[in-house]
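hi support,

uploading two proteins for the ticket. first:
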Amino acid sequence: MSFICTMISRYESLLISHPTKVHTPQCAEVFVRAFVHHYETLYQKHSAEGRKRKTSALSSAQSYISRFKKLLAQRGAPASFLNGLHLTRDEIRRLNIEKNAAVHAGAIDLHEIKGDAVIMDCRAFLRHENPILVVIGLACLTGRRMAEIILTAEFNPPEDKHFTSSRYWTSLGGILKRRTKAEREKTREVPLLAPREDIVAAIRRVRDELPASTPAQVNAKYAKRISRAMRKYCPVIGKLHQFRKFYVLCCFQYFNERNCSLPRLASDYLGHKNLSQTVITYLNFRVTDLGGLNFKY
């Protein structure tokens, strides 16, 4: 049983044995400390064994606390209790220092990615017989996440007028992560790096050939296959999620209608919560050879 399942079981037991105490701030702090202690102990064990981890103990604890909160919300836990499930200010400060240091260390010797050539290759992927490569093409050309492509995203005709052709715009629905809960049902007007009709046709085919009913199921069934395909066909890009960076840098060249800064444009098209988060995310990526494609017709 995974640690998060153990913590869910502990919560449900407390709900039965101590129903008046389980949702107190003190109980929330106990759960948070348990997550932090578990991942610090795990990381110390792995370090002693000579194993390297991609993220720190605090980063893992933060991620799993967030998942824990979502699972408890599904079980009807009150918001006052859920809001108490977070790291301390000092831990968040340390985590931010770690993230900034990683960005700084990775900001040299960047691979040069030929923008227009990658766009054309990924347009060709939309017609490939392998649906996994179709997913890769869609991630590049839409900037959407894997679960959105395979399960939730809706590419409707645009609602606004644009300087570029309406074929390359969409009123996007089915977004999994949103800036605020109030925006849960809203769409977002975003550009596409291929004609919308090609995107929609590719989406239909992917969902016919790669069935899934939940985002978790998408990840369980297809994440490893997509990762292997990325290493084989797109080694310079790396991970599928990196296409979000590629997409927004291409949009900065071709669809910057309001002469926005890169952080503002990325925030608008990808839905980041704030500009500082966007700045950090897009420092370590370099796309060149853009400007030779026509999006006006």
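and the second one:
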Amino acid sequence: MSYESKDVMHNANLKQVINDVIAQMNNQGGIAIVGTPALAIGSSSKAKVLNGEFTVVRNGVVSTIASAETAFTATTHDIADGKEAIFLVYLNGSNAITILKGADADADEAVCPDTPSGGLKIGEVKISVTGAIFNATTDDLDAAHVTDTYTNKTDVPLALTDYSDKHWLYQDNLQGLLTDMIEIVANKDVPRLVSNPNLVIGTSSKAKIKHDAFTYVLNGAFTTITGGEVAFTATTHDITDGEGAVFLVYLDGSTVKLSKGTATTGGTGATCPATPAGKLKLGEVKIVTSGALFDASTTLLDAATVTDTYTNKTDLVATADFSLSSFGQEDYMYSANFKALLDDIEEDLNVVNNDKILGNPTLVIGSSSKKKVKNSAFSVMRDGVMSIIASTETDFTATTHDLAISTGAVYNIYLDATNTIKILKGTATAGGTGAVCPATPSGGMKIGEVKIVVSADAIFNATTDDLDSAHITDTYTNKLDVFEAIA
């Protein structure tokens, strides 16, 4: 979509609230962190804060943040004896991990400082001291006088209370509409998966369902559930010979549970039961039995009488309440262009929340062949279904992807509708100056860009040239499609 203020806006504050929503759509639908930062006491130095490796999406650009240990700042980060403080841990605009201290306070009264403009909060560290000051230069975080608490938490991206009604609202229906938009990108009170549970047959017991460790976010807080195996319930989960049923796999608190759907003959038309209110769907397992009863206590899932199918699938983000069809233009609109703008946002909200990359594709020059583009393994969600994309190397297309001497072009690296990695060349320009990435084809999902510029010495022959050849400059960017803000 592409709009200018004069087409759709009535004042700067209304423009701001909608542009803020678009900005969060470009940060994975308000979930900019993929995985968990796993903040903890340092291992190489107990005077530092350790983070695990994780991925972030900022304005569509996907980056992997390496595991590191971050020191406190001498004197500035000291805490008086008998006091406590909360330290904000965040990424600055350059994705460097930074620590900012809140004010000293009495017990249970400390607050986390606000994230600086351009920063992305990844967590909080609360430190309380009794019997001595906290010396930020020398004290280990497990010292006897220190109590340290680590919370993996990001900012809730938007709230309608950030804006004043009188500046941009004209009546209740417009306010209701914008509230719905903001609650979707804020993921308010609803847990969302940010990694793939990867459901499979159990390894310690083939009568159980195994899941990998996975992470979810709820109101900005990240929680990682340890990998495990889940047993069926005796008798309740039995399936009569010749029938099949779909089992819901879901998270209840910190426990992974199963719920059986209605069995049907041969499993034809069997559906997954609804996720209980407030719980998090992880996937579905369909079991069809032929030749014997499926005994939930004893039958192995690889038994000859059992056909088992595992689908990593979460519930779709509910955008039904945010539907323009429930309003007439006269209820909240002032122009057809404004209605078109909100209609586009409605569609894009659904896309960005239910179709997303989970992890970092990490595009680089090929290792088995330097003529190819390599991606690392990552997961993708499409309409709530999660799939693992294997690490692979993708060829350029002969002739079609060639470049003339002294030119450059940007190539779109994307998944087609079948999750096959494809390459699409953009228009070449002199020296690559001003070259832009071509639009992702319908049904595709962009995972990155590769820019290739060739010198005056030779063409880029897409069939034979290695990407590290002397006449080639190649640049790899892990980047998703983004939505345009209002100009």
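thanks. also noticed: Residues 202 and 210 are 5 Å apart (CA to CA).
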